[in-house]
């Protein structure tokens, strides 16, 4: 059954605001893989579980057409509201039933999304729509996240860990798929030409406000918010105050180093 954790309008707005674009390192890795395996032309890229479109937009420079697909109407509405990408379109739909002809897609991606899919049905559909030598690139980050600021040492990480412990009971078992870096899904891909890169550490500078906003986008935070709205809101307020206090600053615009560890599953459909 399709996971319905991203349906609410306010959740989609948070996604648009606080989810970041895939890092250039990862995009380059995927495009180089596609070039090596299939080469040009790059006609059609399809991004599954596209959310509010961050990965789709970053692909538009490299493909004639990009299509983003998501099961959530709210996410697609937010994605469509971003102007300026004439070769990008969106469809509400599922990764398990793709409305593309056999052998028509050059690159199929899923950013932070493949762990939500029904693996068997998705892989079968992916193999159907990819062109010969077309590629699959499934990426995301697991639970490794670190925050650094000047001499704060590990104290900011301890605060972050405490938040994650509170959210643990609200965490869907599907999230384990991302935390295990899609190991099971990778093994289920029935072709020999595949690889799984487990660690691509990426450091970016984010404001405290963005870090808190990013936590708000987590499906487990949204589940907590539904179960206990005042406790969930208080958790974010308390966390913001603790972070400011540890950093000895007063503005939530202050930047910290935020380190994520991406993973990426790559596969190439045989001729
Ligand atoms: C964690 S979000 C990631 C969104 C976006 N790719 C990003 O990186 O910010 C996962 C997305 O996958 C979508 N999703 C979950 N299951 C799906 C399915 N079976 N088919 C299509 N989309 C799905 C959700 O609606 C949600 O928008």
From TrEMBL:
<dbReference type="GO" id="GO:0008757">
    <property type="term" value="F:S-adenosylmethionine-dependent methyltransferase activity"/>
</dbReference>
<dbReference type="InterPro" id="IPR029063">
    <property type="entry name" value="SAM-dependent_MTases_sf"/>
</dbReference>
<protein>
    <recommendedName>
        <fullName>Methyltransferase type 11 domain-containing protein</fullName>
    </recommendedName>
</protein>
<dbReference type="InterPro" id="IPR051052">
    <property type="entry name" value="Diverse_substrate_MTase"/>
</dbReference>
<dbReference type="Pfam" id="PF08241">
    <property type="entry name" value="Methyltransf_11"/>
</dbReference>
<feature type="domain" description="Methyltransferase type 11">
    <location>
        <begin position="46"/>
        <end position="137"/>
    </location>
</feature>
<dbReference type="InterPro" id="IPR013216">
    <property type="entry name" value="Methyltransf_11"/>
</dbReference>
